[in-house]
Amino acid sequence: MNSPELGTAVSTTTATTFSELGLSDKVLGAIEATGYKSPTPIQAQAIPHVLARRDVLGIAQTGTGKTAAFVLPMITMLEKGRARARMPRTLILEPTRELAAQVYESFEKYGKNTKLNVALLIGGVSFGDQDLKLVRGVDVLIATPGRLLDHSERGRLLLSGCELLIIDEADRMLDMGFIPDIERIGKLVPFTRQTLFFTATMPPEIQRIADNFLHNPVRVEVSKPAPAASTITQPQVAVGREDYEKRATLRHLINTAENFKNAIIFCNRKLEVAALHKSLVKHGFNAVALHGDLDQSARMAALDAFRKGDAKLLIASDVAARGLDIPAVSHVFNFDVPHHPDDYVHRIGRTGRAGLTGTAISLVAPFDAKSVATIEKLIGAPIPWMGEPVVVGEEDARGRPRRGGPDRSGGRSRNGRSSRSGSGRGREGGRQEARSERQEQVRSERTPQLRESAPPPKASEPQPHRERAARDTGDTDGSHLPAFLLRPVNIKA
Ligand code: AMP
Fold first, then answer.
1. CA angle, 279 then 482 then 478, to 5°
2. How many whole angstroms from 422 Cα to the centroid of ligand 1?
3. Is the CB of 61 under 6 A from ligand 1?
4. 419 vs 230: CA distance, rounded Å
5. pLDDT number for residue 59
6. How far is CA 193 from CA 53, 59, 160, in A?
7. Is residue 69 lining ligand 1, measured as CB closer than 6 Å?
8. Same domain as 56, residue 198
9. Ligand 1 neighbour 114 (Cβ under 6 A)
10. pLDDT exceeds cutoff 90 at 484
11. Of 387, 407, 427, which residue sits at a domain end?
12. Closest Cα to atom 12 of ligand 1
């Protein structure tokens, strides 16, 4: 059984059992089968209001059980009535395909005793199949904004029969540039509909949209889960500034990690995800990758393999991995330190879930110092060093590390191969990448035909440069390790 990171609900009435909430018997039966003992605060607070057809403003993050807070009453309400062709009865908007797919799975889980037609309209999936579903009549339409508008603009979809609109992860929609699309969709659904609006944070722009969309809403607020769960040990490890060094350190950490079961490895850029994936597979690791350049079936296959335990390592970018519910992840590695401290909290929160313990290790290069300081400020605690922090040697005129610096063993790998990355990227480069990945997702939602026929990502693109750089320095394939990593270490909590 999963148990979300419970928060504290602000509003007053709280039911302690599911049976007090007004849900149908079929839904209660499905809940029983999941093994949940009691509703989470967001569920206890929101469900009675949703069933009473009130608009709800839910301030809650992933991990609080908020999906069930709208899915359970929706199933109850939709048990009566039938859908008409091309006119969905309800609409759920999600910022990413993965989140949309996750909500779809919730309907399968909680709606197993109910016959509902649930359709998923997301980019990267064939238009034809989606259209066929719409023709048959849909009780619940789960969509990303761009793809939904594409269907609507083609005259394939009428939202005038939509009784309930759910905007999930509104602040993330803002972050990804979807707000204009959301506002257009708002004009396509009837004014008299019921609206549920979920967001983790309430910046002024989100408040403005909430005011526009909601009529006399009930506000349900669940406190943020602690920034860094106390069940997570989170050391940082010093690495050099080159990717080959980081890769070698990462392999060593994976191979020597205690209680290792599986790991999510985060990179800041999708190119880095692809390159690291290729490298880990080459080194015999059972790894899959998840980033915005992969087509939808590849993304779902990767997630599936990781969830089932067929793959032990999932290498991901922030955009692709946000909000995903993957229980029982033993380790998180930050191959790159995230530029935004919030991303750090999201990332490490993938482990240590549901009361389990977890370890989140950040590989910290000299240029990451500022990012680490901002993270430490947000979480309100220093991130302890694993081993001793390393003072990095000077660079030569060509920007390469000088041999013999304190963090360079200068050693050659057993097999003597070399593959050095000369990426030398900085903070701005990473931020631009994150931004461009978001823009890419927006584009890909809106231009499915192009995306579907696009060639697969070239993970090997930077390779010639890397190999050339490696030859230049005579460096190894990254098997060389900072000496301190070969000493036994003590992780301080
Ligand atoms: P969410 O915040 O919707 O992403 O949910 C986080 C996790 O909590 C999911 O794995 C759900 O299956 C689980 N969950 C939802 N409701 C409950 C509950 N009442 N008791 C225990 N686990 C729950």
1. 20
2. 43
3. no
4. 38
5. 93
6. 9, 20, 10
7. no
8. yes
9. no
10. no
11. 407
12. 2
Q: Which atom of ligand 1 is nearest to the CA of 18?
A: 19
Tokens of 349: 């929160």
pLDDT tens digits for range 140-191: 999 999 999 999 999 989 999 999 999 999 988 988 889 999 999 999 999 9
Look at residue 357 in the predicted model and tell me its pLDDT: 79
53 belongs to a structural domain: yes
Is 0.90 topped by the overall pTM?
A: no
Whether residues 264 and 369 share a domain: the answer is: yes
Do 129 and 244 sit in the same domain of this protein? no
Going by CA atoms, what residue is nearest to atom 22 of ligand 1? Answer: 3
The answer to whether residues 179 and 309 belong to one domain is: no
Note the pLDDT of residue 229.
60
3 lines ligand 1 (CB under 6 A): yes
pLDDT digits (tens, 9 = 90+) for 266-280: 999 989 999 999 999
Assess whether the C-beta atom of 67 lies below 6 angstroms from ligand 1: yes
Name the residue of 224, 325, 326 whose CB sits within 8 Å of the most ligand 1 atoms, as the mutation to test its pocket: 325
Domain harbouring 283, CATH code: 3.40.50.300
| Domain final position from 407, 426, 460 | 407
Look up residue 27 and give its two tokens: 């839904």
**Residue 38: inside a domain, yes or no?**
yes
- Residue ranges making up the domain that contains 112: 4-221
Buried/exposed code over 118-153 (b: 16+ C-beta within 10 A; e: otherwise) = bbbbbbbbebeebbebbeebbbbbbbbbbbbbbbbe
